[in-house]
Amino acid sequence: MGDRTPSGSASNTWRVGVDIGGTFTDFVILTPDDKLERVKLLSTPDDYSRAITSGLRDSLSDAARAGISAFVHGTTVATNAILEETSQKIALITTRGFRDVLELRRARRPHLYELNWEPPAPLVDRELRLEVGGRMDAQGAMVEPLNEADIDACIATLRGAGVAAVAICLINSYANPSHERQVAKRIAAALPGLRLTCSSELAPEPKEFERTSTTVVNAFLLPIVHDYLTQLETSLAAIGVTPQPQVMQSDGTTASAAMVRERPFLIIESGPAAGVVAAARLAEQMGRSAIIAFDMGGTTAKACLVKDHHVALNDELEVGAAINRGSGFMRGTGHVVRAACVDLTEVGSGGGSIAWIDGGGALRVGPKSTGANPGPACYGLGGTEATVTDAHVVLGYLNPDAIAGGKKRIHRDLAHQAVSALATKLAVSERDAAYGIFTVATATMRRAVRAVSVERGYDPRQFTLVSFGGAGGLHAAALATELEMPEVAVPIAPGLFSSLGLLFSDVAVTRIGSCRVVFDAQAPGQSMQALERDVAALASEASAELGRHHPHAQAPVVEAFASVQYVGQSATLSIAMPDSATAGGPTGRASELIRGFHRAHQLARGHAAEDESIEVTGLRVRVALRAPPLRFRELARSFVTVPSTGVPPATRREMYFGPALGAHMTPIIARYQLGATPLPGPLLIEESESTIVVPPGFDARLDDTGSVLIRPR
Amino acid sequence: MTQVQASSPAAMVDSVSLEVARNGLAAIADEMAISHVRSAYSSVARDMLDFSTAVCDSQGRVIAQGLSLAIQLGAIPRLMKMMIARVGVPGRGDVYFVNHPWQGGVHVPDVFFVKPVFLETGAAPVAYTVIVSHMVDMGGRYAGSISPSAASIFEEGLMIPLVPLVKAGVVNQPILDLIAANVRDPSSVLGDIRSALGALETGATQFQDFARRTGAEALAGQIERLLDATERATRAAFRRDIPDGTASAEDFLDSKAPDNPNPKIACTVVKKGDRIRFDFAGTSPQVAGGFNCTIADVMSVAAFAARSVLSEDIPVNDGFYRCLEFDVPEGSLINAQYPAGVSARGSTVCRLNDVAMAAMANLVPGQLPAAPGGRGAIFFSGQRAQKDGGKAWVFLDYLGPGWGGRPMGEGVPGLSHPLVNAANIPVETIEQQFPLRVSEYALASDVRGTGLHASAAGVVREYVALNDDTTVNQELIRDVHTAPGVVGGHAGTPALAQVRRRGGATWESVPAIGLFKLNAGDTLRCQLSTGGGYGIPVKDAAGVSGSSTAQVASSAPARGA
Q: Of A324, B334, B489, B495, which has the fewest beta carbons less than 10 angstroms from its beta carbon?
């Protein structure tokens, strides 16, 4: 087995992270002496494992491959399967009277004025949404026994229906799962080999639409992810890579392939989570307790808050959803999945976002994007509309000849043409139009950052912006200015930074449970003990699961969170359960939990009602094997080095920083030319996979993690 | 493309600052909405999202609206006019509130809160943050403070004139005590009020921050330009997206009022150049009972009808409202005069919207869906068993009827009425909180308005009472006057309600719009009306059937089948 033992022993083996996207497969390989190797290959969508094996074969010797101790990967296979709505058939079994819950959804449309909005088609056809009689109430008491004849009728329908999996979700099963289990058992006996998944196993919490949708998504993914992982394991074994693959989950931890086969709904946000984990690890080593991770790519920009090195989590996501507007309120465009996920906000503002002028004369950017094809005008692939990347070229920020280490040619004249057409319409100069595009794009990104901070009760002025992704360094200083953030850090390898997170994520199993414990003012200790019993049960279940996949691992770390609200409210906050060392026994722990809730309520919602009773409605327990530390200081050596060809001659380019700051002949340097002593802006740091703009009025220096730190002077 | 000033740098600054201001102000209104949804107590606010937020400038003009219900938004300009006229210059730390329908409110359960926003210096507010939240009960004869049969406003609950709830940062506790003493579920109501105050504060802080960063004067200038630009964009869009012409539509409301059980709602839309006028002449006079509405709601409808047909994402603010013109007969069903009952105005406003949209559809053929089914608003109330605390309980269930057939396909099932866009309440949430069991929530696939593109299938919800003496006060709208079809589509099906008494085998009809009691074990089955069909059904066109009745065949499977 390929267990990653907790920190210390990782440095004598090879660790491999592979991030599979629709276009590229990115590899990061950590060598035994803490060097990082990077490979980028075109993906092979007909069989993704082909690119993986050929990449590993080409870059690692047989001996090195045999020495791989961890193979971790992020994949969009789950999201793609849903987006492409592969033709596979699955079935759903519900309580009698509720087969249409999946289609009725939550009755709300995401856009008030778009009357032609179409919800995503249900993943289960109506004739395969089957019903069984029998009923639990909200307290878990049986109201009506399960009707076995109904189950048999379902079995008759399922037999020969050619379904690949069956989702089972009964009303109130979060309070009592026994009917769901009986249904599964009877079907399994009659139709051995048919894949089954029960809602009470995946998301035992109230709200039937969300739980049904989650279970259906899991059922839909079961066969697809199973086949995918099997193929991957076979291919890896064939080239001598023996550890069981780990897969990045939406919450930024990883799980073994065997576990993911049962619970594929956990890996939907596999890709974006990794970058946030890397940012959290970087913050730890930089000694920053409050950062906002910001990732800007070709079509979107994403933000996530990391406080005290904990990645902010959300308990729900939508798969196949449109990009939201930078607010957590726009729901309903995708399939709802209840699962812990990195609390990301995404806006349609990336390098390829198109600039346009609306009917009121305002300059707008995005959300329409040119995508990879034709791409920005300056790519010379036929695009004619001005994009954010074209603005970067006109402003002088992007190398006018080529980017991506010389691999991507830039047609400067085409960028000028596109921006100039827009400038004419606006009756402004070309560079003012370009700066306008830059500013409006930044304003949209500002909204994404506010959504993860201000909307959650945090003040961005107390946070460092950790900016990565290919375009992250271009807007970081401007964005920080807009939000009055005191500092920007652009880490090493910004273009591959997300993949780094794969190498350093904890292995974890999470279990959730429903409960209803009202804290008794007279005997809070008793309420606390009741909760702790539930936590212990969930923890032992999760530990057993973890132990099955990692039998040789050391004792895992257990973290527990309670979903707490004032009695009568219907929105909980997640509060860490106090650890057993808290003074004052159960009563002391109870008052710590209650205090923690009042504080969190004050922070997130602006008020606290300290004389009101509180109740706990759910628990989330995470059992984790800690990953080895991400040693940025050592890694930085592979990045911040003088090339063997020597220091190239100094160059300058004219760059434009807007009407207020004007145009400047700006020095262009490489990252290694920065030192611990701040250099004044304007300055441009150009590297093969990214560009960092340091505007006038800012200083830049390098810290010992290899990050470029930018601060207002 | 647009009228753009020639002066180069200023034009650029304008184009960019407009977008920055629009984005920044909209974010504030959204942040208020998120704050409220996260800390509200009632399922009405938290699950159904029956509330709206807005930011207004120093003159009370709407400059941004949050993600909220269109049905409430049009009331805010009227409220702000009254606020400024009555209060003049409010003080620092004040919050005013009102639900009085002729002093800025719309009906008693919708409580509006207004907070003036001050900067560090200056004696006058620079902005106002506004939130309106539907309270689960505000007292009065009927649980939920809504009833078609209320004889006048005095049966509809506790009216709050425009008064300060908070003065110089200090909450006027006696007012809260007064409210608590008058409503059926004081802890939900006071919890939602507390949450609304939190949302106002969130908005105020964010606005102060925005003003400080931008500079107060610069921001005021940007707001002025934003409103002007919105007006320009709106007028340009009117020219571009709506052909000139005049179009009318009318429909009848199932009011059950003794003086006029079938009042008419009529609307004529006159579009010429960059102007649009909504004329409601021909609408019946106000009726006895709670089905009237105030003129505030007409603004919501006109704004929604006009905005929905525009092809551009134009913000709905004062600049947009400026472009709308009305003619609303005084004393009519939709411009009712004090002290008319207006509590059940939700159903009237939805119908008003159906009519305005139908008129609009005649101007922009091929773009708008046929009318949706009528909404289902069902109030359950009673007293909890002694072992469960013995307190009064009120539950408002609000069901989306599904939409009419659309130009590009069938209606979307189960969606809330277009003007409302409220979420449904999960069955499992209902069962956790109230003495009810829901035994079905499903689509009746053989019930729909047929057409080339049929309406969505009918929505059914079935409830079992767990307590004796459970009162039901329901509005399953369109039980007589069904949703009309468009361009040859058939009308929708009517709403139906039936009860099966405990232990019984047969179903008896109960009024779809009316009040009755259930005892423990009784089952209430509500089938909402369905929307109209869009286009001539294929079999009609082929001459197979010319039936214009709506109750058609199981030949039309539900979506997804």
A: A324
